[in-house]
Amino acid sequence: xxxxxxxxxxxxxxxxxxxxxxxxxxxxxxxxxxxxxxxxxxxxxxxxxxxxxxxxxxxxxxxxxxxxxxxxxxxxxxxxxxxxxxxxxxxxxxxxxxxxxxxxxxxxxxxxxxxxxxxxxxxxxxxxxxxxxxxxxxxxxxxxxx
Length: 146
Hints:
Radius of gyration: 22 Å
Shape: extended
Organism: Pseudonocardia alni (Amycolata alni)
Order of helices and strands: HHHHHHHH
Protein name: AcrR family transcriptional regulator
InterPro entries: Homeodomain-like_sf
Number of strands: 0
Region (Disordered): 1-30
Strand content: under 5%
């Protein structure tokens, strides 16, 4: 049997993602997902870059409408990025504190170090400098999931 798909003698044939990638020499890029959008937004946040829906859509090769369907509004995406960042930061901080300190002082030390990291974080600093009102609203409103 050759490398091409053929439906002969009961063999299954079809256009699959794998077949398309093989036919293109492996250069076909897999489709982006909502999680890819979150990861791009988080990477940009880590670098202190503004989260821009149109630019993220362009980087992922999807339309702005598709990205909005995946992540909701820019505010909703920012909240998810803030949560992702907080989870990862607290986990890293907790691991470092457990390695450095006796068990009885973990909570206070974790919160103290985490707060210091938040203040220094490039993404938070960027939001404070350019969109302070938005940041305050996302962090404090009852309507916010953060």
